[in-house]
Amino acid sequence: MIFKLKTSKKTQEIFEEIGKSTALKPYTLVKHAIAWSLKEQGKITSFDSDTDGLELNRQTITGEYDDYFKVLIEQAEGRHLSNEEYFPKYMKAHIDRGAILLESRYKHAGDLDKYVLETFGIGDTV
Length: 126
Prior knowledge:
Elements: E1 4-6, H1 9-22, H2 26-40, E2 55-57, H3 58-62, H4 66-77, H5 83-109, H6 112-120
Antiparallel strand pairs: 1-2
């Protein structure tokens, strides 16, 4: 079983850029990226990216909720995935696709408070 994956260089750059302005760490941003990718509702099979970015540990990404992440990705794909397919292949693809979506949504919001408000409908309105 594989326990690490490497994101794309673009994902690393996105996480670094957002991290600088928000102090959010990659282990937080990766979950947002996965969520945005899953919400996109398109199969990820054709998404391709390099492996020149961050090295992330499976435990850091999914923690005790690994089975839940796997089921969500299986539902998005409409089929059962073997552990070898799920991690790192599909997980990496969702992280990399989701990072691009996260960047777009964060830039549209303009700052962390507005991003949180627009994403979750919580926080102070400014």
